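A quick aside before the break. I want you to see a complete sequence-to-structure record at least once, exactly as it would be stored in a machine-readable document. Don't worry about memorizing anything.
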Amino acid sequence: MTKRLHESFTNTRTIKKLLVNALLVPMLMTIPLISLMCYFADNVSYWLFADSKYIGAVYLLAVSTIFLIFERFILLFIRMENKALSFSLYNILIKFMILVVTIVFLLIFKPVFITVVYSTILGQMIGDLILLLTHLRLFKKQAFVLDRGLVKRLARFGLPVVVATFIYSLFVVIDKVFLRYYADFTQLGLYTAAFKIASALLILQISFSNFWVPTAYEWYQKKKPVRYYELVSHIMMLLISILFIFLLLAKGLIIYILSPEYEEAKYIFPFLCFYPLMMTMSETTNLGIVFLRKSYLNIIVSCFALLVSLILNFWLVPLYGSIGAAIATGTAYIAFFIARTVISMRIWEGFSVRKHMLVTVILYVLALYNTFGPDNGFQYAAALIALAAILGLYHKLLLEAWQRINVQSLKKAITNKGIK
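That is the input. The structure line, written in tokens, reads:
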């Protein structure tokens, strides 16, 4: 018992040391960023709000970056400790503070967009301040021990991630840029509405990532067999593809709830669903890059996805507007998933992803038919056929799950009856 407590205490001290050393580089990088934002406040204001008079919002945004860094690292600390409830509650708290401050500001001040901007930033800062105050123990003086070797290793790992993230950010916004240049605000509005529908799957993607990352690291440290990772990957592929198809089946109801004015969004959102779908799946198949700490490979992945996105947006947006942008985005995220998976499996023992690829092809064809096929009962029939095909691919997994449920139910029934 004493040994276990000592190990737990040692691990906690190690994590705290890692946390404060990891904070050092982002904090140092924030100083020139804040300085530049404040010095060029009028230019930043014009770039963000199409008007150079909102420099106060730029100053506030600059200061909020410090709070955002603390938020990011503290939430990571909570997540890596597998405190799912605390992680969720603090995330909800931050969003709740934004909501409260926004409502108060709209009641007191003029209800214009800049009021919402100020209230959002201040609400975020208040939520982050509460988070920081409740975790001050992590930043006590004795907790900080500068480890130059550790900082160098963190920088060596993190800098390629920064570059890859920057490239990925371009990849994320490129569709809106092409729509703004080649189309009009109507097309951009339809695209945004369609993206909101696809965001239903995004909730699952974020929730899964928050749970999966610390679990995967823990399994790797315990040297769990590859079949554990494979099982999780197949379960997620099955679950998220079923949700994808259900969204297609419910598209009429969704558009009715959203607004009949966004009728065309039902032709756009299927391809945008590949964003959360492929991001979720890549979290389960890129483990080789993660475990072996070859973060520089993410640069190759992001560059490949960006290239696919640029080519397809340049080709399709002038022809099909928001539909073309959606196809380009969905296809680029599939390319992102394939690149991440192939590279990861080459450097790690890995597992078979044939079913993943086959399901992706089925969903892609279904999305094409939903976008360009006749809008009648055949679309719903095609969705049901695709669902049956996917369930058929995973029939062994479903059968095994059903058998386990029956065994557990039987054991529970025997226990309740008092039969030994």
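Two observations worth writing down. The chain is about 85% helix and 0% strand. Residues 1-10 have pLDDT under 50 and may be disordered. We'll return to this after the break.
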